[in-house]
Amino acid sequence: MKSIFPEVITKLPEAGLGIEGLRIFISHSDTHEVWFLETDVLLDYPPHAHVAQWSTVVNGNIEVTMNGERKLLHKGDQYYLPEGVEHSVKMSAGYAEV
Length: 98
Fold this sequence. Notes:
CATH class: Mainly Beta
Oligomer: single chain
Strand content: over 45%
Distance between the termini: 18 Å
Largest sheet: 5 strands, antiparallel
Shape: globular
CATH architecture: Sandwich
CATH topology: Jelly Rolls
CATH superfamily: Jelly Rolls
Number of domains: 1
Strand order of the largest sheet: 1-2-9-4-7
């Protein structure tokens, strides 16, 4: 898969989530992580929760469902997921976010 991200990003360590078609490059510090996520396939990720997340859509679109509300986000849009809040996502093929 050819990355939308430049080489300085694709040389970062990858998260090994084991999801075919999904790549996540991670910049890590003692206080936070920055994830550079991209997929070349349609991904429909089931409900889950994790630490707080703030993301900006870099390419494609994502459908985020949280608290029964569904939002379709496009390139340039931002979204925030509070810590521990269950949500699901559907990412288009070619989707990327930071």
